[in-house]
Amino acid sequence: MGRREGVPPPPPPLPLPPLCLLLCLPFCPPRLAAARPPAPHLVLVLADDLGWGDVGWHGSAIRTPRLDALGAGGVRLERYYTQPLCTPSRSQLLSGRYQIHTGLQHQIIWPCQPSCVPLDEKLLPELLKEAGYMTHMVGKWHLGMYRKECLPTRRGFDTYFGYLLGSEDYYSHDRCVLIKAKNVTRCALDFRDGEEVATAFKNMYSTNLFTERAIDLIASHKTEKPLFLYLAFQSVHEPLEVPEEYMRPYSSIKDVKRRHYAGMVTLMDEAVGNLTDALKRYGLWDNTVLVFSTDNGGQTLAGGNNWPLRGRKWTLWEGGVRGVGFVASPLLKQKGVESHALIHISDWLPTLVHLAGGHTNGTKPLDGFDVWKAISEGRPSPRVELLHNIDPMFVDDFPCLGIDNRTSLLQSKSSPWDGTLFNISMHAAIRHGKWKLLTGYPGCSHWFPPPSLFNESEIQSPDPPTKRLWLFDIVHDPEEKNDLSEKYPQVVEKLLSRLQYYYKRSVPVFYPDEDPNCDPAATGAWGPWT
Q: Is the model's pLDDT at 408 over the cut of 70?
């Protein structure tokens, strides 16, 4: 039978091996499989409230030479997203899951709320421990502490050094809280070394303390085990406090808040530089992946800036959720580039666990994606959709000043989208491809240029205060100036159906009343009380 066309002829028979080779075969050692490269050290640096317009590579007047250089030599993430607030971003970072799936979709965990990231969620440090890592955390926790089971050392970290609440004094490390049920304001220490209250660090600036502890961990690291270091700076969250010498270069900035803030950013920039110098000095850098990220947009009421993006911290506008971020590492296959891949803070868990050679078995269904090839090789991101949030209880604790000073949605006129696919009065936003849809009241909708040499200005939103739905081509209109909802109703319909899909699969908001038993009067320190 003839050979079919396109099928190659059979190969000629192999010659018989020489006798000596046959005789030695039983004694030949097997060929070793290619050794897997050692797992990389993972260093995750999280800034607090650092705005889009607060770094040198986005044109800021604030000097950030070390961050600029690290980003320029690595991969800058220019379409990278966080959540608009502290707790939600940190919970999604460590769980890889949207806040609608953990009950944390409303605001933050306040000091006296009996709440924490659900204890049945398996977090990033636990997964890395399973992969053989030493896991260390330094800095701000803000994921709940009312029970000891909620503390960082019970959630996968071998060591912890930092503070548990959302903010405090940079020097005294005290936090003052109004306990409403008692009508008393209580000030107490919030600083821990492991699970023990740490009283020996008064009058020491937290950014310096945290950097020194991080460098100590690097210096003492036993290199047979890979290192995971999560350094969550207090900087640059208010209160606006910084050593005087860091403000001197900004004496020309007349806005007092912006001048303090600029000094805080520059000190943090120096701290990140010192950290990377230590990684090099102690021989870890060549096998390290360093991720730098903010936790949300800048707070314009406290010196931060997101220009030219719209909005600020607390809002679903780009100024609240588009984050400053980059990856720096000798292990990157491409360096010195900008990435425009869609990446979200929830993507770090699967990305880092897979880099570590670990697995995500045992987690609940993840919302994050492994984006390493998108970052390192420039491949398309596996993420095409991003739920920014759905919060049925939203109230803006920091409303706009001026014309639009509302804190929630005003009574509004009827809309053609009322009673259709999704309740458009609900605070929500979703991104799919180039499109972004916002509903309800997204939060303060102004644009805030960088404070000038003489005064702070704002460009007020032209939208009526009753408006409840916007559609933007965010790739071509990142400043969210041109609402396309009337022009593309089919896109609105699709994205509203996606919001409803997520809403139906969300868990109820968990936002318990404050518990007056949180009162630290007896111990002098904030900490677990049940």
A: no
Query: Which residues are registered as beta bridge partners of 175?
Result: 188
In 3-state terms the chain splits into helix, strand, coil percentages (rounded to 5) of 25, 15, 55
Q: Are 404 and 445 in contact (CB under 8 A)?
A: yes
Is the per-residue pLDDT at 405 higher than 90? no
Please, where are the H alpha helices in 65-203? Answer: 65-72, 86-95, 124-130
What stretch of H or E contains 384? none
Least confident of 38-52, 65-79, 264-278, 458-472: 458-472
142 is catalytic: yes
Whether 20 is catalytic is no
Q: What is the residue whose two structure tokens read 């049945």?
A: 120
C-alpha closest to that of 290 among 327, 323, 335, 334? 327
In terms of Cβ atoms closer than 10 Å to its own Cβ (0-12, 13-18, 19+), residue 143 is buried
Q: In what order do the strands lie in the sheet with 385-391?
A: 385-391, 427-432, 435-439, 469-473
Q: What angle do CA 206, 212, 215 make, to 5 degrees?
A: 140
58, 142, 237, 260: the catalytic one is: 142
Amino acid identity, position 335? K
CB under 8 Å to 26, separation ≥6 — which residues? none
pLDDT in tens, 250-282: 999 989 999 999 999 999 999 999 999 999 999
Mean pLDDT confidence for 397-417? 67
Q: Which residues of 34-47 are buried (b: 16+ CB within 10 A; e: fewer)?
A: eeeeebbbbbbbbb
3-class DSSP state of 117: coil
Identity of residue 109: I
For tokens 């007047």, what's the residue?
A: 61
> Quick one: pLDDT at residue 27?
45
468: its two tokens: 């409840």
Q: What pLDDT is recorded for position 452?
A: 66
Nearest C-alpha neighbor of 54 from the set 267, 253, 306, 251: 306
Nearest to 98, CA basis, from 294, 318, 321 = 321
- Residue 407 is predicted with a pLDDT of 61
Helix (H, G, I), strand (E, B) or coil at 354: helix
Of the residues 58, 86, 106, 427, only one is catalytic, namely 86
pTM: 0.91
pLDDT, tens digit, 9 for 90 and up, residues 338-388: 999 999 999 999 999 999 999 998 899 999 999 999 999 999 999 999 999
3-state secondary structure of 220: coil
